[in-house]
Structure formats: C-alpha cells, structure tokens
Q: What sequence folds into this?
C-alpha cells in the first residue's frame, strides 16, 4: 500500500507539473487576443488632419487672429513632439500652433463641419480667431497631465463655407504623467463633416468602453474569485492580498477610462488624484502579495517602501502637479524591483512554481518599459488607443492566478497522498489498538490477580507479625533486643519468649521453609505449640513438636526451630535445623559457635535432638539468628557466611554496650550487604546480654522491628 501511495504521489506530481504549462499557454493566448483587440486602429485616424502645422514658443493672445502672418513659425507635427525642438525644450513653456483647414474634395462645402482633438496637457482651440474649446488646465480646472478628447462643431465661414484657420494654444504635460491610454506627446486634431466626426467619435468611445469592460471584468473577476478562495479557508492569506491587488487594478482601469470618457470636466482633477492614490495602493498590495506568496518576512525593505507609498500618496493629494514624476518613477519602480528580488530568491531556493510568477513580473516589466518608450517617443503606437501597461498588469495577474491554482493543486495532491497514507496507518493503528486492548485486558486481569495475591500476602504478613511478641520480657539480669528485617513477601521467621517459674528465660527462634501463606501457617502452628510447651527438657519439646507437625501429613511443611533456656549461670540450647548460635565472651573478646545437628520440624517422624550447655558469665552476649544474613551476598557478590557474621558480632559487641546497640549495628551491617536491594529472605536477630546493662538502660530498651 505504501509503495502504491508513493507511485500515486509521483504520477500526481508529474500531472501537477504539466498543468501550469497548459494554464500558462492558455493565459498567453488570452493576452494575445486582448492585445490584438487593443491594436485595432481608432476610427478618428480615418478623418482628415491638417498637415501644414506651424508652431511658435511663447504666449500672445494676438496670435489667434485669422490674418496673422505665420511664415516665420517653425513647421511641427503636433502629434509627435517627442524628438522635435518642442520636446527638447521641455514642458515648462507655452506653444502656439496654426494650420489651414482644407475640406474633403468629395464633401459638399455646405455641410456642417466638426472637429475632435485628443491631447496630453492643456489647450485652447481657436477657429478663425473664435475660441471654440478649452481642454485641460484653464477654465475647466483640470490638471495639465490629464489626457482628454473633445468633439466640437466648427463655425461656418463666409457664405457657409468651412473655416479656413485653426489655432491651438498648447501647454505640454510632464513626461512622467502622460496618460497610459493614448501614449502621445502632443495633440491630435482631426476635422470633417459633422456626421462623420460624430460617427468616428462614437466609435472611439465604444472602443474605450470595450477596453474598460474587458480589463475591469478580468481584474474584478479575479478579485472576487480569490477573495472567495481566501474566505474558504482563511489560512491561505496570499489569496487575500492577490484579491486586493486585483481590486485596486480594476479600480485603476475604471478611473483611467472614466477620465477620458467623462463629459464632466470638473471631475477630471478628482479622477486624477484618486487614480494616483490607487496606483500606490495597487503596488503596495502587489508587494505584500509577493511577500506572502514566498513566506518572505516583512523586513525593513517592506516597511520602507510602505512609508514611501504613504508619503508619496499624501504629496500627490496636496501637490497634484508632482503626481506624474512621484507616482511612477520613484515608488513603483522600486516595488517592481523588490518583487523581482523576492521572486529571484525563491527561484534560487527551488521554490516550486516560482518561475510562473517570475513570468508575470517579466510581462509587467516589459509592458511598463514599452509604455515608457511610447511616452518618450522612442517607439510609436500601432493604434491611438493602446493601454500597453494594463496588458502587462493583466499578464502579471493571470500568472499569479495560475501560480495560486498550481499551488492549490499541489496542496490537493499532497492532501490526497496523505489521506491514503492516513488510511493505511489508521488500519494498522486499529490492528495495533485491538492487540493493545487485548494486552491491556490481560494486564488488568493479571494486575487484579496480583492485587488479590498482594492483599492475601499482606493479610498473611499482618497475621505473622501478630504472632510475634508485642513486648520484650523484662528480666533483672538480662538485656534483650530483637530485630527482624522482612523480605518483600510473607516470611517464615519467628521468635518468642517465655519466663519460667524458676526464674529462667525460654527463648525460641525459628525459620519456616519458603515464603508466603504456607510459611505463615507453619509459624502459626509453632506459635501454638510453643504456648503449650511444658517443663520438659528442650530435646523432648522439639521431638514433641516434630511429631505433631508430621502428624498433619502435609508435604513440605517444615520449620527449623532453636530453643534456649537461660538462667543465672548457664545456657542450654537445642536446635532443629537452625544456624549455630553465637556466644560472645567479653573477657576473651571472641565469639564462639554453638552448632547442634538436627532435622527441621516435620522433616522425619521420630527424629531425635541433642542439647548443648555452656557457661554464662556477666558481660557475655548470646546471638541467635536465622539464615537470612549468613546466606546473603555482599556488594562484591560474595556470601557473607557465618564467619562474616561472627566477625561483625565481635566488632559490634566490643564497641557497643547494650544488646539493643549490638542489634542496631547488625541491622546496619545487613543494609550495607544488601546494597539497598530488596531482601531475598528474612533476617532476624535475638541478642541477650548477661548483666551488661544498667537498670536505666534496661528500662529504655524496647522491641525494634522493621
């Protein structure tokens, strides 16, 4: 399944790589068709235009009179002044143009005549000395940089003949503010019969409206589409910034064409200001879109350019005459350069599909360069209406839309591959969960069983501890101390005391075989037997206990037991499988072993046990213990052994005064040997010292059980 998913991912990636090529080709075809539409020649060019224009720099209202001698004026083509002496002189002067109007040879002279003028800048038109039109700055209040086109009737001459002379007072616009729709530096004047001029004028307006509808529809449709894509979902914010860029571009086109199509000259200045501010907003939105598209952090360059945009927008509103140079050549070229830099960085980082947007930025750059070449007169437009820059904007927006579609397609394919992998992983995870659930069920059952056993063991442990003496016997001549270190489970160690009527002390210490409930039951049985012991000799007591345990006929129910009877001067000991007792002789500073052979209780019927008698002098100490400590491994992995216990007893008895202190030292020795690990077997000590302690010490001694 994983191999299949991988192969599917590869085929999807190949398909995704091919889609942008087809989409880009489609976008290029649409742009080419639009360009062909824009290159259709304006119908005003089919009308007659004076060819003997003469011009003069300066400003004198008397130059508009019909009979003025203009032989000294220079010849000039008013629709192509970029390379003429007027263009080289700059845009700060006023120029007057004069020409003779010749009616068409095939038109009756009595037909009403009309004219149309298109220009960049401002102009006052005089026909036979009569002012017939004012365009741009002047009475209408429009700035000089606004491109305008106006149709007006020509007054009839003498006897109804057409007028003979046209004079134009012209103020050129600044190069940077030339209109993108009619890239001419100067003006164009045509005339003819009123019906023909009106028809040509209407056709030109329809062409402008068609261009406006095309660009506004294209940019507006992209804006709506990507705004909806941003809303569902909102995590892809590049759609938002692209939508804002498209909205601003559509508004730019609408205002640009409206400036030319509007019949209300008083709104031209407002349109010009709004268009300039929108141009700043468009470029700022474009830069923010490029940053968002390639995850570029908003560094100082972005904020610097944004600050320049805000400053230039304010300057454009306050000082409209600065608009042409500020709005285009300072801010927008910088934004385009920064966008190209970010795009180039993405290409170097092998950002998938980044070349698509690079193509769009290239189209925009070429469109702006061509537009500027048209403006400065280096190139000549193939048509009167040719918004080259907007075709570059259209190429950029189409490329950006293709890139977003490409990016979305890649995301969809990756999501599909991930869903397939998730399906496989989910199935495996379900199988693992079922297995884990089964293991968990078994674990819980085992935990419940362990809990039950633990509770039973704890109950048995408490029962065992309850069988031990709650207090130690108080004897005037003996110091008694006991310590029991139990293992993790219920142990089988046991000790007990009984004061005899003759003043002696009967001591018992035992160790049941194994651990757990069985060992606890044996201890309970021996406890009952010990309580019923009479005054017989110690071997007889052990033999009687052996017979009674054996009579139960329970296999492996064994217990080692040692009995000691201590009087004033003698110790008598009998043992049934217990480790040897140790007697420390204080006057000799040594410990001796009391080893007696004998089978554990319950091991064999009719077993016989011996007895050992030793002297008992003041200061001597008797230590009876289970086999837990001798059989323990020390930190070095060696068995402690009985010899190790004997040496530790001699050291402890020599340095300690009371039996309680000796037991405490032996307990610490046990902890050191087991190295903080759990005990594997119970460790029990019973220490009795002969008159080694004062009355105060004997009062302070108590039972120590851990």
A:
């Amino acid at each position: 399944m994983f191999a299949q998913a991988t192969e599917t991912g590869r085929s999807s990636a190949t398909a995704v790589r091919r889609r942008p090529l087809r989409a880009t080709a489609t976008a290029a075809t649409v742009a080419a068709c639009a360009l062909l539409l824009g290159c259709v020649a304006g119908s005003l060019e089919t009308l007659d235009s004076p060819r003997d224009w003469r011009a003069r720099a300066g400003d004198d209202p008397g130059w508009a009179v019909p009979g003025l001698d203009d032989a000294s004026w220079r010849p000039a083509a008013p629709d192509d002044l970029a390379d003429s002496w007027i263009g080289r002189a700059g845009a700060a002067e006023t120029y007057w143009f004069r020409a003779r109007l010749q009616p068409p040879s095939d038109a009756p002279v009595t037909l009403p005549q009309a004219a149309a003028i298109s220009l960049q800048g401002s102009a006052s038109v005089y026909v036979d000395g009569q002012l017939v039109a004012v365009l741009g700055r002047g009475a209408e209040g429009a700035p000089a940089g606004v491109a305008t086109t106006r149709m007006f009737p020509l007054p009839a001459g003498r006897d109804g003949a057409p007028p003979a002379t046209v004079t134009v007072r012209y103020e050129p616009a600044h190069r940077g503010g030339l209109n993108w729709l009619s890239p001419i530096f100067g003006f164009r004047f045509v005339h003819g019969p009123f019906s023909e001029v009106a028809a040509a004028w209407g056709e030109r307006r329809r062409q402008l409206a068609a261009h406006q509808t095309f660009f506004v529809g294209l940019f507006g449709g992209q804006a709506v589409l990507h705004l909806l894509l941003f809303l569902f979902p909102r995590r892809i914010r590049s759609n938002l910034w692209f939508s804002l860029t498209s909205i601003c571009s559509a508004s730019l086109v609408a205002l640009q064409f409206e400036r030319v199509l509007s019949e209300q000259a008083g709104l031209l200045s407002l349109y010009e200001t709004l268009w300039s501010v929108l141009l700043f907003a468009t470029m700022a939105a474009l830069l923010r879109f490029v940053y968002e598209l390639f995850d570029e952090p908003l560094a100082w360059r972005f904020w610097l350019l944004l600050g320049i945009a805000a400053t230039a927008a304010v300057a454009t509103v306050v000082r409209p005459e600065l608009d042409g140079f500020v709005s285009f050549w300072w801010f927008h070229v910088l934004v385009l350069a920064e966008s190209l830099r970010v795009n180039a960085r993405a290409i170097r980082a092998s950002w998938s599909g980044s070349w698509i947007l690079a193509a769009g930025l290239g189209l925009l750059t070429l469109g702006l360069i061509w537009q500027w070449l048209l403006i400065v007169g280096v190139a000549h437009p193939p048509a009167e209406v040719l918004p080259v820059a907007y075709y570059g904007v259209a190429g950029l927006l189409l490329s950006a839309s293709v890139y977003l579609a490409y990016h979305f397609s890649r995301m969809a394919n990756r999501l599909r591959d991930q869903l397939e992998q998730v399906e496989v992983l989910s199935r495996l995870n379900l199988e693992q969960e079922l297995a884990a659930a089964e293991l968990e069920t078994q674990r819980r059952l085992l935990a419940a069983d362990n809990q039950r056993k633990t509770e039973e063991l704890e109950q048995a442990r408490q029962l065992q501890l309850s069988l031990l003496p709650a207090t130690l016997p108080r004897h005037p001549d003996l110091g008694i101390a006991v310590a029991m270190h139990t293992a993790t489970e219920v142990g089988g160690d046991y000790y007990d005391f009984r004061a005899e009527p003759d003043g002696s002390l009967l001591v018992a210490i035992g160790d049941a075989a194994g651990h757990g409930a069985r060992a606890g039951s044996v201890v309970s049985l021996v406890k009952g037997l010990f309580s019923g012991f009479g005054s017989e000799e110690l071997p007889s007591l052990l033999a009687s206990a052996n017979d009674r345990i054996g009579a139960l006929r329970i296999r492996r129910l064994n217990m080692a037991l040692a009995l000691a009877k201590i009087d004033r001067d003698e110790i008598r000991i009998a043992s049934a499988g217990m480790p040897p007792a140790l007697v420390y002789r204080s006057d000799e500073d040594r410990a001796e072993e009391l080893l007696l052979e004998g089978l554990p209780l319950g091991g064999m019927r009719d077993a016989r046990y011996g007895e050992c008698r030793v002297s008992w002098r003041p200061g001597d100490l008797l230590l009876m213990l289970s086999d837990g400590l001798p059989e323990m491994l020390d930190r070095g992995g060696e068995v402690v052994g009985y010899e190790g216990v004997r040496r530790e007893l001699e050291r402890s008895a020599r340095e300690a005064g009371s039996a309680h202190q000796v037991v405490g030292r032996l307990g610490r020795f046990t902890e050191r040997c087991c190295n903080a690990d759990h005990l594997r077997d119970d460790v029990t000590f019973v220490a009795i010292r002969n008159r080694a302690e004062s009355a105060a010490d004997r009062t302070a001694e108590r039972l120590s059980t851990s």
Summary: Confidence is low (pLDDT under 50) at residues 1-42, 138-145, 692-706. The CA atoms of residues 176 and 622 lie 119 Å apart. The first helix runs from residue 2 to 38.
